[in-house]
Amino acid sequence: MITPSELQERINRLPRARLVNLPTPLENMPRLTKLLDGPRLWVKREDCTGLAFGGNKERKAEFALGEALSKKADVVIAVGPVQSNTARAIAAGARKLGLKAILVLTGEKPDNYDGNLLLNSLFGAEIRFLAGEPPNLDKVRFMEEIAADLRRKAHVPYIIPAGASYPSGAIAYVNAFLELVTQVRDRGFKISHVIHAAGSGGTQAGLVLGNKVLGSEVKIWGICAEPGIKDQLVKETVEIARGAAQLLDLNEPVTSNDVVLNEDYVGEAYEKPTPEALKAIKLVAQTEGILLDPIYTGRAMAGLIDLVEQGHLKRDDNVVFFHTGGTPTLFPYRKELFEQS
Ligand SMILES: *Cc1c(COP(=O)(O)O)cnc(C)c1O
What we know:
Blueprint: H1 4-12, E1 26-28, H2 30-36, E2 40-45, H3 56-70, E3 75-81, H4 85-96, E4 100-106, H5 115-122, E5 126-129, H6 136-152, E6 157-159, H7 167-187, E7 193-198, H8 202-214, E8 219-224, H9 230-247, E9 260-262, H10 275-288, H11 297-309, E10 318-323, H12 334-340
Parallel strand pairs: 2-10, 3-4, 3-6, 4-5, 7-8, 7-10, 8-9
Antiparallel strand pairs: 1-2
Helix pairs in contact: 1-7, 3-4, 3-7, 4-5, 7-8, 7-9, 8-9, 10-11
């Protein structure tokens, strides 16, 4: 265990590009709290990071692109699905830093550009579609070929792993946990649970490491956004957390017991929002005036609501919901959202 200020000092030693507004607000959700008649609900507004609609990938981009700059990169290569929030964060952050972004998007090129894809074209990112569903290795090889080609042309490329979920990206969420601890201390209450959407593991890796190294004993629950990956994701999250610990010179052995992932709210497929997620989006919009997204935060909020109903979260608990962003994907899902109304 180390002190918050010691942890902050170690984070501050790492390469970082200043891209977002921090700390993000910690707000309470009084009307949702009342309606669910359960624990006190708080929301950490990671959607308010201020860069390109905001989100957790914007926060991670500070460390990912900081690392790229420290390696003298002039082109960054990011990967994700067609509606990738990471791609948007990197495309925007790269522009702000004067870098070029190449986005490898796994899917068919759609006829109409919408949501994140539209934004990425506004940022002038070079977009390469990789149709079909390549296994992870193919995506990696594809990015490496692009990088090799750039090197032959005297560029310095930097590849950002999927979701910016690697040790450098996860540092951003160690920092977010530290930020939260400070906000909560200033307001004089104690967090019992953190609930957030999990996709590629970097967010949870950072939060779990922060929690462990500060000895905070908060229960951190990741709600899976993609079916069938839970066991693999636990392993990857542990790996990322250990890598982040190394970057911070921490001897903190995060294990799979520290990574609590729930896949009860995931539905049939990543790109298919569940009816519960769509309902949760409307509920939060209409009680708190907050917009969630159909892929990640809608699912995580559906999970939170169910966990309250199941009695897993008690009335004297303080539960912090991490709103990790993703709001541009509301628009490509207009049909599903409209049908629900
Ligand atoms: C990527 C993403 C997540 C999941 O974060 P990981 O670090 O990939 O687990 C959650 N919410 C939104 C909106 C995201 O874009």
